[in-house]
Amino acid sequence: MGEMANDVEVPTFKGEGTKAKVIFEELARLLPTHGEAIVSKVQAVFLFKVFNHGVYNRPTAQSQYAFWVLDLKNGSGTVRQTDKSEPCDLMFFGSDDNFENIMTGLQNPPVEFFRGHFVAKGKSYLLAKLRELKPLHADIRAKL
């Protein structure tokens, strides 16, 4: 069973065919060697709910979404996929395309949040901390 998102039932899936899955796989590869410096600056756990059809924070009736946890609070950081919402410092809800633009440095997370391009719940000031991933942007873009 899926969850409700903006009054539309959105079934969950594993992220197959999404840019988000590629980005998280690349983050999982890069964090063991680059994560310690990032974790020391960020100190937060993010939950990402990314949907595959629709724009900004508005899924369509055909949308499905996947959940990932990005732990930038412990060790050198970790990425893992989950099948439901979990406790976190900040939850991101948005489209695959919008997520790609934020995680590759093409969009500024706080600016896009205030434009309404995605939903953030929790400690919204942590959106600015996503910019600490900047040293990884080139490697992430190369995988897309």
From TrEMBL:
Protein name: SCP2 domain-containing protein
Highest taxon listed in the record's lineage: Eukaryota
Gene3D superfamilies for the chain: SCP2 sterol-binding domain
Pfam family, one: SCP2
PANTHER family, sorted: SCP2 STEROL-BINDING DOMAIN-CONTAINING PROTEIN 1 (PTHR10094:SF25), STEROL CARRIER PROTEIN 2 SCP-2 FAMILY PROTEIN (PTHR10094)
GO CC annotation: cytosol
Species annotation: Trichoplax adhaerens (Trichoplax reptans)
Residue ranges constituting the SCP2 domain according to the UniProt record: 26-133
